[in-house]
Amino acid sequence: MWYRWDTVRFLTIATDGYTKVQYAAFFPLYPALTALLSHIMPFQSLLLSAMLISNIAALGMMLVLYRFVETEFGIETARRTVLYQAIFPTAFFFFSGYNESLFIFLMLCCIYALRRGAWWFAGLFGFLAALSRSIAILLLLIFVCEYVRQHWPTLRAQLRPLNLKALFAHIPTLFPALFIPLGLVIYMLGLTVHLGDPLAFSHAQVDWRTGLVIPGMALYQSIEQIIIHYPLSFSTPHVLIDFGFFMGCAALFFLAIFSHDRFARDQWPLLVFWGFALLYAILWPGVPGLPGQGYDPMPSTQRFVLEIFMAFIMLARLSIRHPRLHLSYVLLALPFLAVLTLQFLLGYWTV
């Protein structure tokens, strides 16, 4: 039942490697670990190996998330954040043969290390995250932002008056940041060897009916499909869910900046990462299919929201002040999770 959709592609890569350009959209760390574990474990099942990796990573992800939020926001916020992410309607991907939990675990480890000033550990986890998902390149942005935040008094003194020698002295400390793009470069070298195209991971998006557009077009296309083109089609509820989840995440982003429960001033690098992640999500909408058919203007948004852990932190902060929000979320999320999990297990398109 779990052998569905992208799980099939990950396991095909684990078995045969990158034999088609369309598979280049799936980054190599997860299938590589799956193949390795299947050779080590006695059961030698790729599917079981993939799900075992996902479940172990999900456990690690929740532990790191709890520790991170507890350090930054307090115990009660940490408890609610982990709960809200664990029961989110698409949280079943954490335990299926997808790389969601592995990527979020590595991303959280990277950001947690950054907040503690452990630059080399942050670079290492960022390197591994870049071998898991393309969006990991945004970790380079938060790396630089966090370094600037922690060293701003020194940097400001060196900028006025300008002291180039002192500024260049920061370069060795920033060297671990290069590990993040290094992960992508290594993958590109592998694609060059196997497919003859270092940008195959980008070119493969055509096969999955996505393409780069101006920001906002995906939102416009979603509204257009819901209201005008295909209001009664099978795909419209799916598009509505994608659109709703994205708008909810975006609303929480603005609340994290302007509301009474906004993030602290020294947490601005988290907001920068969150903002660019939202922008990243709407730069790659789906493209229309045949005339008269519905399509997915915001593909994989339901999974993407899972990765924006800052949204769950903000939701937790709001729910502490507004207890009814906590109850409402739990009562809505749990049955929604059950429905989408059942839909996935029955082989219906979920995201």
Automatic annotation (TrEMBL):
Superkingdom of origin organism: Bacteria
Presence of the UniProt keyword Endoplasmic reticulum in the record: yes
Molecular function per GO: alpha-1,6-mannosyltransferase activity; GPI mannosyltransferase activity
Bilayer topology: Multi-pass membrane protein
GO cellular component terms attached to this protein's record: mannosyltransferase complex; membrane
Pathway: Glycolipid biosynthesis; glycosylphosphatidylinositol-anchor biosynthesis
InterPro entries per UniProt: PIG-V/Gpi18 (IPR007315)
PANTHER family: GPI MANNOSYLTRANSFERASE 2
Pfam family name, one: Mannosyl_trans2
Species in which this protein is naturally found: Ktedonospora formicarum
Biological-process GO terms, alphabetical: GPI anchor biosynthetic process
Membrane-spanning ranges: 21-40, 46-69, 81-114, 120-145, 166-189, 239-258, 270-290, 302-320, 327-349
Primary location class: endoplasmic reticulum
Keywords from the named record: Endoplasmic reticulum, Glycosyltransferase, GPI-anchor biosynthesis, Membrane, Transferase, Transmembrane, Transmembrane helix
Record's protein name: Glycosyltransferase RgtA/B/C/D-like domain-containing protein
Subcellular compartments: Endoplasmic reticulum membrane
